[in-house]
Amino acid sequence: MPVISDIRLNLKKNDILRREGFRGYTRIRPEIKNIVLELLESADSAHLLEPTTAYEIYPVTGMDPDKVLLEGDAVVSGSLIPSTFPEAKELAAIVCTIGPGLEKQVTEYSQGGETLRAMLLDGIGSAAVDTLVIEVCHCIANEASSRGLQAGSPVNPGMPGLTITEQGNLLGLARAGDIGVNLTSSGIMVPRKSTSLILALGPKMETWTQADVCARCNLRDTCPYTVLHS
How far is CA 157 from CA 36, 77, 144, 166, 217, in A? Predict the structure, then answer.
């Protein structure tokens, strides 16, 4: 099981603000901007961000309209991958986390009545997970390219054709427990600043922009972080 734990996250201001629910940096009050910058510095100095990823690449042994068969008798259920990536030769099951440190600090801020700091720091954590996913996908795509394969756009449990119930299966495929990521009985990932995804690898894989991904999401009409087409 490959584990990546040495990725340096270069958090971009606009990505953080999108995760905070802000649409334009120039409209934000200066004191809010200052708090965001302060929290970024403190998160770095206190090592609140510990980006770690576990993944496993499985050869595809067959596809049905509603499932993908993998080497080792593993199965990924759902129509999304067969319909979108029918030429996939491999699937990478991936789990990313920034660890529990930032989440604990958010809780301390909330319990201490510092609601604004809690909200802003939580947004930084979400942006960090987003950035980690991008970096990890690049790493896996580069490795696949050396073997003559392309990487498609990542897909997540909860997207149409890949139900959220596949979350537990995906964590097992990626061996997420080895990096401290688990699923509660109610289906919540712990640490909460974690995510799971699948990357299809093959000769001709479809890729999407972030706006395309948002358009495919079940929450596109209500999510405050949706990226819209211009």
Answer: 30, 10, 22, 6, 10
Number of domains, the chain? 1
Confidence of residue 230 (pLDDT cuts 50, 70, 90): very low
Name the maximum alpha-carbon separation found in the chain: 56
**Residue type at 77?**
S
The residue among 209, 55, 213, 50 whose CA lies nearest residue 140 is 55
Bridge partners, 60 (sequence order): 70
**pLDDT tens for residues 60-79?**
999 999 999 999 999 999 99
Dihedral angle, C-alpha 101, 11, 227, 140, nearest 10 °: -90
Residues listed for the chain: 230
- Predicted TM-score of the model (pTM): 0.88
Q: Is residue 222 part of a domain?
A: no
